[in-house]
Amino acid sequence: MTQKTTNLQVSTRGKGLYEFTQEAARWLASSGISIGLLTIFIQHTSASLTVQENADSDVIADLNDFFGRIAPEDNRLYRHTVEGPDDMPAHIRAALTATQLSVPVISGEMALGTWQGLYVFEHRDAPQRRRLVLHVFGE
Amino acid sequence: MTQKTTNLQVSTRGKGLYEFTQEAARWLASSGISIGLLTIFIQHTSASLTVQENADSDVIADLNDFFGRIAPEDNRLYRHTVEGPDDMPAHIRAALTATQLSVPVISGEMALGTWQGLYVFEHRDAPQRRRLVLHVFGE
Amino acid sequence: MTQKTTNLQVSTRGKGLYEFTQEAARWLASSGISIGLLTIFIQHTSASLTVQENADSDVIADLNDFFGRIAPEDNRLYRHTVEGPDDMPAHIRAALTATQLSVPVISGEMALGTWQGLYVFEHRDAPQRRRLVLHVFGE
Lengths: 139, 139, 139
Hints:
Chain A is α+β, with helices and mostly antiparallel strands.
């Protein structure tokens, strides 16, 4: 068995989901691994990872709205306000979603369902460059 | 070290939790792996995975109710309504729980706590057959 | 490739976050593994894992408050009340966060972001000793 790691950067422009399925698939293909496990880890606490439906942009918008409702930008709710009204809600949204995802690799591809895509879930308003660490092992 | 993968299907009959601990344990036992890591991945965006207490059915019902309260079936809240009133809440519930779980394997068994069971968390009303991909490696 | 497992106990004194980044890092260093994947699994359904900012204690307090607001201790909301008013909210809080985390290992260290720390998220009021299972493999 062999293993490989890489870094991937995803540029974001405000709250919402940014797909990186293709970038991850390309790197996986270049690794030559046919059966194994791919792990994605995001090195941030105000952005996270999610697997969602990649067919309908309304799903993405509704998902973003939902998180705005349960973790509103209202400074009266929080002690931690010095980094802006979107910072503490961002930490909450990150805690409610995933920092890490592992996907089995079969026949050289991620074993995603038909409608599944991999997304960075950005929780801050200002543009960011988000760093992911990818690890794959197998044979 | 060796690795193995398989598929597991879990039939669901409406929103709620469906345990598959035994099915996963049986496959793990058949793999002959004594120490390693078992990963479970669900190939859907309207059902998810959770580890919960397998002792008390009230816990399961209360958990389901909670998710009904924070992501209600109310079309006025969502743009994405064409797949039925339970579809967008299903995506939200899936984002709040897990698409993937990894469990260390020790002495040929999953290292679960005394009260922990593995569940598919179904978020839709109609009967479904949910597909899981299992991957284990170790020795 | 080699693999190792261990157990780690984290003592908690009421709801909130308890960091164990250093304990995990020490064990990882002792394993001698330079590149690989570290997995942490918590053997409980009323405590969970989260990766959060380790710089500001206000973030930790606000995060705890948020979970108190969305899963309040109000027995009228729950069937499962025999284990105390904090038990069912604890199960909900655990379902919303992580039971397991995997972190890539690079140059003998967890590939955490600058501000990321690993925490046990305690959801019960009484003091507890929480058991984690750690698994690492690599070379």
